[in-house]
Amino acid sequence: MDLKYREENGCVIVEDVKDFNVVHIFECGQCFRWKKLEDGSYDMAAMGRRINVSVNGMQLTIKPCDAGDFEKIWKDYFDLETDYSEIKERLCAHDSIMRNAADFGWGIRILKQDLWEAIVEFIISQNNNIPRIKGCIERLCNLYGEPIGEHRPEDIEAELMCDIPSPKVLAGLKEEDLAPVRLGYRAGYLIKTAEEVLEKGMPENREELLALNGVGPKVASCIELFGMAHKDSFPIDVWVARLMHELYGLDEKNKKAMEVYAREKFCGCGGIAQQYLFYYERENYTSKND
DNA sequence: AGCCAGGCCCAAC
DNA sequence: GTTGGGCATGGC
Question: What's the predicted TM-score (pTM) here?
Fold first, then answer.
């Protein structure tokens, strides 16, 4: 795909961006640190940068940003060279359930996040709920992460924007050092995993992910999907298991059958399908019950 | 107040 | 290889 973009006033502006909605992307459960500002744009510190992202019509603005950073980092981070319309056509052609889910979360894109960040965040995510996960990660970053970016007076929380702490920093901690973060039993997982990564380097495949302490099949799938851009990876948590039963009639306990179904029916992008379904199920479930 | 959450580890089969 | 108990914490 040919990306039309330009630098302007320290920003990069991308034109003709389709299938891109900041709420869908940042609130669909694939990431936990993007902060919504009052104007509807989103802020984060990551990849050694601090940026703000906004969309106006089909125009995406990343600030501050230059062409070098855009080409090197954000083009892939936001998966801008993938045609999601074409993927949705294939996924929904013979699947009215998927059609509803993809109509609902039409602007979702699977982010290619920093691998170490994905490892840390999805270890924390296990047997946990999304509001609390966000709090844990924010406390962890504020306590042990590197501050990033300029303090902008218009942003009250600007000075608190910090990156995910490095393996080296986390490997040097004791569990009691993490007590203020309130990670529960996950604190030990995080420290041991940081030690393993420091010693052996970053994992490169599923087998190496599963060897990390606190990483099982579901967390490994999330790391593959959101930190390695494996769009066929199909994480099955309690929400996905429930929806595969409710919507597709599969046995709620049989994860093997769900993996087979996803592989055979979801056109080689089970991870994208999963994210449409996950967002659809969660938003409808929570709005139904309050 | 109690059930639940983007599950995993480990021991016992 | 599979199954089940235990697990910190706090959102709702």
Answer: 0.96
